[in-house]
């Protein structure tokens, strides 16, 4: 009876997600054509620039304090482990299935490494807290903490996706582009050299100094600075100039504009308000003099969860199209995300609890475990569109993994609730 009670508790939020997701898919079909491509673009902009930053600001400002933030230090480590382990398992999947090169980074590694760390916890945790006789105590307290934990998870997930996964996909896409161009060129050393030089300059992370700007180099065996020929003479490259060039290269590779997404900026603002008592007293609470601002932001944030869930369903409609992706690749991604990664997560959490790295809050432990069992991040679709490869294949993977998530998330959530209580 205990198992079935936990099973029903875990099933209800997943069913809510499925119903709203199915509605989004239905509205995106050509027969209804409500959430068509243009409508999805406009709604996605509202979610990206308004709703998600608003919910991040309101939940973090209300629930996070400096003390609680210190207690949550293990969450960024835990999320990093999900990305690293997922990438390693994705690499093994590539070797086993012999997936096409253009899918290595765009689908296999990306979908295996990056879970939906923002949208799904924002939906699942409050839904579990609102169940009758919820397993995590008082509904209001549970919901407040759950939203704060989920918002922090979303902010950290955005940072990792736009640094780790983005560059993983960029490197894979660039290598695949080079290979295709080289294969089409005549097989002689001169043409291959010219092609490689052209591809190197076209790659997003190109060399710091181009070949035509370098007219002279000296022996570097003794660690001397590189000397570059300039129009008016030869000048030494100072250490400061080298550091500046390295920073510019880092900025290009990391894509700071994408890294500082509105959701991340909203999370930073929410953390600042929550951590600094002066701001919190002025904005948060019924007696706060500026509480009308926080209430307005909170009202906007309430639209984030239904809008995001509808968009997930609408984007999955693209997965109904035919694709040449191997069936073994789809099955492999499902096994990695829904069997292997959660198993690793249980072991990691058990070890962290044994060492004493995690506080005794059951809801916090549940979220840490849930981060290993989530379906792939919807942002992967955005990244595939950015690089123009594997778009249809990614939609097929998303459709298959989100369909399987209904059963997987229910079973794993049931087990996780039992484990942390």
TrEMBL record:
<dbReference type="GO" id="GO:0080162">
    <property type="term" value="P:endoplasmic reticulum to cytosol auxin transport"/>
</dbReference>
<feature type="transmembrane region" description="Helical">
    <location>
        <begin position="258"/>
        <end position="279"/>
    </location>
</feature>
<keyword id="KW-1133">Transmembrane helix</keyword>
<keyword id="KW-0927">Auxin signaling pathway</keyword>
<keyword id="KW-0472">Membrane</keyword>
<dbReference type="InterPro" id="IPR004776">
    <property type="entry name" value="Mem_transp_PIN-like"/>
</dbReference>
<feature type="transmembrane region" description="Helical">
    <location>
        <begin position="6"/>
        <end position="27"/>
    </location>
</feature>
<comment type="function">
    <text>Involved in cellular auxin homeostasis by regulating auxin metabolism. Regulates intracellular auxin accumulation at the endoplasmic reticulum and thus auxin availability for nuclear auxin signaling.</text>
</comment>
<feature type="transmembrane region" description="Helical">
    <location>
        <begin position="369"/>
        <end position="392"/>
    </location>
</feature>
<comment type="similarity">
    <text>Belongs to the auxin efflux carrier (TC 2.A.69.2) family.</text>
</comment>
<dbReference type="Pfam" id="PF03547">
    <property type="entry name" value="Mem_trans"/>
</dbReference>
<protein>
    <recommendedName>
        <fullName>Protein PIN-LIKES 3</fullName>
    </recommendedName>
</protein>
<dbReference type="InterPro" id="IPR045033">
    <property type="entry name" value="PILS1/3/4/5/7"/>
</dbReference>
<feature type="transmembrane region" description="Helical">
    <location>
        <begin position="106"/>
        <end position="128"/>
    </location>
</feature>
<keyword id="KW-0256">Endoplasmic reticulum</keyword>
<dbReference type="GO" id="GO:0005789">
    <property type="term" value="C:endoplasmic reticulum membrane"/>
</dbReference>
<feature type="transmembrane region" description="Helical">
    <location>
        <begin position="72"/>
        <end position="94"/>
    </location>
</feature>
<feature type="transmembrane region" description="Helical">
    <location>
        <begin position="148"/>
        <end position="169"/>
    </location>
</feature>
<feature type="transmembrane region" description="Helical">
    <location>
        <begin position="329"/>
        <end position="357"/>
    </location>
</feature>
<feature type="transmembrane region" description="Helical">
    <location>
        <begin position="47"/>
        <end position="66"/>
    </location>
</feature>
<dbReference type="GO" id="GO:0009734">
    <property type="term" value="P:auxin-activated signaling pathway"/>
</dbReference>
<feature type="transmembrane region" description="Helical">
    <location>
        <begin position="399"/>
        <end position="420"/>
    </location>
</feature>
<keyword id="KW-0813">Transport</keyword>
<keyword id="KW-0812">Transmembrane</keyword>
<feature type="transmembrane region" description="Helical">
    <location>
        <begin position="299"/>
        <end position="317"/>
    </location>
</feature>
């Amino acid at each position: 009876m205990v198992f079935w009670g936990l099973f029903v508790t875990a099933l209800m939020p997943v069913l809510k997600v499925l119903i709203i997701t199915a509605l989004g898919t239905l509205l995106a079909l050509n027969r209804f054509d409500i959430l068509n491509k243009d409508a999805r673009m406009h709604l996605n902009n509202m979610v990206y620039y308004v709703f998600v930053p608003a919910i991040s600001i309101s939940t973090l400002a209300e629930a996070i304090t400096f003390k609680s933030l210190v207690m949550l230090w293990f969450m960024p480590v835990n999320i990093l482990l999900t990305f690293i382990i997922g990438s390693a398992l994705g690499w093994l999947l590539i070797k086993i299935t012999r997936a096409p090169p253009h899918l290595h980074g765009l689908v296999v590694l990306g979908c295996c490494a990056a879970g939906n760390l923002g949208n799904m916890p924002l939906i699942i945790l409050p839904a579990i807290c609102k169940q009758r006789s919820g397993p995590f105590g008082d509904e209001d307290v549970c919901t407040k903490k759950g939203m704060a934990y989920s918002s922090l998870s979303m902010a950290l997930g955005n940072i990792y996706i736009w640094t780790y996964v983005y560059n993983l996909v960029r490197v894979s896409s660039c290598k695949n582009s080079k290979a295709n161009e080289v294969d089409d060129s005549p097989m002689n050393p001169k043409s291959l050299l010219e092609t490689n030089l052209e591809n190197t300059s076209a790659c997003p992370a190109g060399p710091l100094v181009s070949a035509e700007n370098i007219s002279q180099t000296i022996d570097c065996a003794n660690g001397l600075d590189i000397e570059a020929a300039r129009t008016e003479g030869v000048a030494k490259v100072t250490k400061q100039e080298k550091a500046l060039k390295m920073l510019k290269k880092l900025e290009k590779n990391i894509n700071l504009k994408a890294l500082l997404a509105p959701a991340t900026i909203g999370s930073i603002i929410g953390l600042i308000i929550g951590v600094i008592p002066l701001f919190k007293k002025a904005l948060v609470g019924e007696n706060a003099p500026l509480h009308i601002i926080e209430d307005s932001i909170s009202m906007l944030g309430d639209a984030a969860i239904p809008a995001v869930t509808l968009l997930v369903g609408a984007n999955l409609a693209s997965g109904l199209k035919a694709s040449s992706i191997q069936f073994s690749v789809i099955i492999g991604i499902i096994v990695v995300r829904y069997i292997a990664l959660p198993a690793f997560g249980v072991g990691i959490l058990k070890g962290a609890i044994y060492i004493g790295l995690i506080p005794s809050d059951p809801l916090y432990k549940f979220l840490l475990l849930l981060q290993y069992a989530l379906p792939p991040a919807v942002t992967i679709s955005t990244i595939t569109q950015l690089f123009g490869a594997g778009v249809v294949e990614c939609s097929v993977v998303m459709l298959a993994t989100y369909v399987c998530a209904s059963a997987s998330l229910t079973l794993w959530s049931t087990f996780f609730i039992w484990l942390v209580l």
